[in-house]
Design brief:
The chain is α/β, with parallel strands linked by helices. It contains six helices and seven strands, in the order H-E-E-E-H-E-H-E-H-E-H-E-H. The radius of gyration is 23 Å and the shape is elongated.
């Protein structure tokens, strides 16, 4: 056998070991993501309730301090389709008597973009009294919204309203920051681009496990606001 062929043959085992090591690391990473996602979903699944017109809440379930509606972005000056569905379900829960107050939490971090004001106005237009609607202007992420719900607004046992793929993480975070949450999912139809959002959610769950375990501070904390008062104190121009 020529020396050239022997050198070529000697390279293959090294390349093969590199490929095997890379594949093993990739498999290990996927298993870690899967296990962490299972932890989030399994630990939160028992907190989810499906309430509809045909399946309204029982009187014994109308004992929550607030309904938390998580932001989902605007389209112009209107709620996005996903946010509109969250608002509709939140308003439904309020009118069913699940809680006496609603907390709209979302992004108002720059001039010209006030997500929570649009959310509040939508609920007011649907017949919810303005004084029963609070706004969290610094709900920049799911983690920030849940931490501030507990630390700033003093919530204890809220109803959390969002789409089902997202609700597990919100409930997981809530449980780890001191909230006794009940999740009410809002999925009226299949949303475009859902596979991509689901993939992002897998990664976000892993990230927020670390955020929870580290006890990370929210972007903005601010002064306490009592949810038992008048929601108009959170109005901003």
């Amino acid at each position: 056998m020529s020396r050239k062929k022997m050198k070529q043959r000697g390279k293959h085992p090294i390349r093969k070991r590199i490929l095997l090591a890379g594949g093993a690391l990739a498999l290990f990473g996927c298993l870690c993501v899967l296990c962490l996602n299972l932890w989030v979903t399994l630990s939160s699944s028992g907190q989810i309730r499906e309430f509809t017109e045909k399946n309204p809440p029982a009187d014994s379930e109308k004992n929550h301090d607030c309904i938390v509606v998580l932001g989902a972005g605007l389209r112009g000056n209107e709620p996005s389709p996903m946010l509109k569905d969250r608002l509709e379900k939140g308003i439904f829960c309020y009118k069913q008597g699940l809680a006496p107050k609603i907390l709209m939490t979302g992004d108002h971090g720059r001039d010209g973009y006030n997500e929570v004001q649009v959310m509040k106005q939508y609920a007011v237009n649907a017949g919810v009294p303005s004084q029963d609607i609070f706004m969290d202007h610094a709900g920049f992420s799911t983690y920030d919204s849940m931490v501030r719900a507990h630390d700033i607004f003093g919530l204890k046992n809220p109803v959390v309203v969002t789409q089902k793929y997202h609700i597990y993480r919100a409930l997981f975070i809530g449980s780890h920051v001191g909230l006794d949450c009940t999740g009410v999912p809002t999925d009226y139809y299949k949303y475009g681009g859902q596979p991509y959002r689901t993939f992002r959610e897998y990664i976000a769950r892993c990230k927020d496990i670390g955020t929870v375990l580290l006890g990370t501070e929210p972007v903005y904390r601010g002064d306490p606001i009592s949810i038992t008062g008048n929601g108009d104190v959170t109005n901003e121009e």
